[in-house]
Design a protein that fits this description.
- It is a single chain.
- It is built from 9 helices and no strands.
- The chain has helices at residues 10-13, 17-25, 30-37, 41-49, 59-62, 73-85, 94-113, 123-144, 149-161.
- It is mainly α and 162 residues long.
- Helix 6 (73-85) runs antiparallel to helix 7 and helix 7 runs antiparallel to helix 8.
- The protein has 2 domains: 10-62; 73-161.
């Protein structure tokens, strides 16, 4: 069953309707298609959103999260931080190590902002506090003694391998 074209739809009234719909169905960009045929992106989105193109879902429906998928931002950030601490920096330059430390600091900062309320804290929150403290101490030492970066990298590798 095909959707009935709306009388007010500018894409439905366009002489290039078939070519427009073919481009949309082929997954070509809305911007390029709108420029190519002289219609607005908004008109293309409304055309698709109103069901005028068979087999093409509106963009907002293409990016939905599957049912049952639980996205936990704290767990995601924790995993990212764990991966950053698992990086082998043995052959890295000091500048590369500095960038890694900055990335670790930013992720730890994001974790601290995503922390659950105090009454919900449990083992994960305690582990998070320990990690934040470790990052803070590490940053303090590196700021005071930049010449020990290699030693810090070796100590982190030893800690990771425990």
């Amino acid at each position: 069953m095909t959707a009935q074209p709306m009388v007010t739809c500018t894409v439905c009234k366009s002489p290039h309707k078939a070519a427009l719909e073919a481009d949309l169905a082929a997954g070509k960009s809305e911007l390029g298609t709108s420029k190519r045929y002289g219609v607005t992106r908004g008109a293309l989105r409304r055309h698709v959103g109103n069901g005028h193109v068979v087999g093409v879902a509106p963009k907002r429906d293409r990016q939905t999260i599957p049912d049952g998928l639980d996205i936990d931002p704290v767990a995601s950030l924790q995993e990212q931080l764990n991966q950053l601490y698992g990086v082998d920096t043995q052959d890295w330059s000091p500048a590369q190590i500095d960038r890694l430390h900055e990335q670790r600091r930013r992720v730890a900062e994001s974790l601290s902002r995503a922390r659950p309320p105090a009454d919900l804290e449990g083992p994960a929150a305690a582990k998070l506090k320990r990690l934040e403290e470790m990052v803070r101490v590490q940053d303090e030492v590196l700021e005071r003694h930049p010449e020990v970066r290699a030693e810090v990298a070796a100590a982190l590798r030893a800690w990771r391998d425990r």
